[in-house]
User: Fold this.
Amino acid sequence: MTYRPQETVFGPPFLVRLPSLLYLLVALGISVVIFAGERSAPGTWLYHYVIADDMGRVMSIRTFAVIITVSAIASVIRAGMRGVRVYEDGVEARDVTALVPKLKRYRWPQIEQIVLDSAAQIALDLWDGSRAYLPEVSDRNGLGEALERVGAARAIPVRGGRLELDELEGPEEAEAG
Assistant:
């Protein structure tokens, strides 16, 4: 029976999520200003801008607020789609290019070598001679350790690993020992 690692998900780094979070913050700020303008006194500048000037606009300010808020929420969700998932059958790399999410799955038998040499990215050398780079994750060391454990258990060579073989004790061995 082959080694099947416990499923682990590694999300994108905070700097990748930051632009979408700032966009959400701005959208929520706009929505709060519009909400405050609707409830402000009729003689104020904010009431005049939000309510009185709304008749001459192509799109109502409420519609604008809903569209920008939904767009910001979608941006946060889209930014969260990135990352790497290590599961029992292989590795799944999730990234977003342009507007389309991109998902690549690599099964354990396809992987010839796990490359942890680079400080920035982790790569997988595949059976067809190509090299697949995994997207950046928030916990690079955790991903490296998870891949090292799988590499040791499945006899996949690991280049640049840091764990010693006696540290690769799984949860079953740790409880028994």
Summary: The mean pLDDT is 86. The chain has five helices and eight strands.
